[in-house]
Design brief:
Blueprint lengths: L5 H12 L1 H8 L3 H8 L7 H12 L3 E4 L3 E4 H9 L7 H12 L5
Antiparallel strand pairs: 1-2
Length: about 100
């Protein structure tokens, strides 16, 4: 079974793909990734680690709109813009604002 600890996932991803590639996939700089790994990041580390879980985690969440979905799917849905023309997007927009599963 794969470990879902975000710090472990981050270190494994860097070991496998390299710091720059992981930074690109997370949307952070390589310097931020390095600082997080070495415990020197002065920003909100939980934001970086939440993103690591979204991108590299294998866990699931119980979405009130879509049911059980992967963390990656949850992150993708959260990024989509509001669209009043789609009833599902409206429900997701409202549910995601209150959701604590991905924070």
């Amino acid at each position: 079974m794969r470990n879902n600890d975000p710090m472990t996932l981050l270190k494994q991803a860097v070991a496998q793909s390299g710091q720059s590639a992981v930074a690109r996939s997370l949307g952070y700089s390589a310097a931020v990734v390095n600082q997080v790994i070495h415990g020197k990041y002065r920003g909100r580390i939980e934001n970086v680690l939440n993103r690591v879980s979204d991108v590299y985690g294998t866990g699931t969440v119980d979405c009130p709109v879509m049911g059980k979905i992967t963390l990656k799917k949850c992150a993708a849905e959260r990024k989509k813009p509001f669209a009043a023309t789609s009833p599902q997007r409206v429900r997701l927009y409202q549910a995601c604002k209150c959701c604590t599963a991905h924070r």
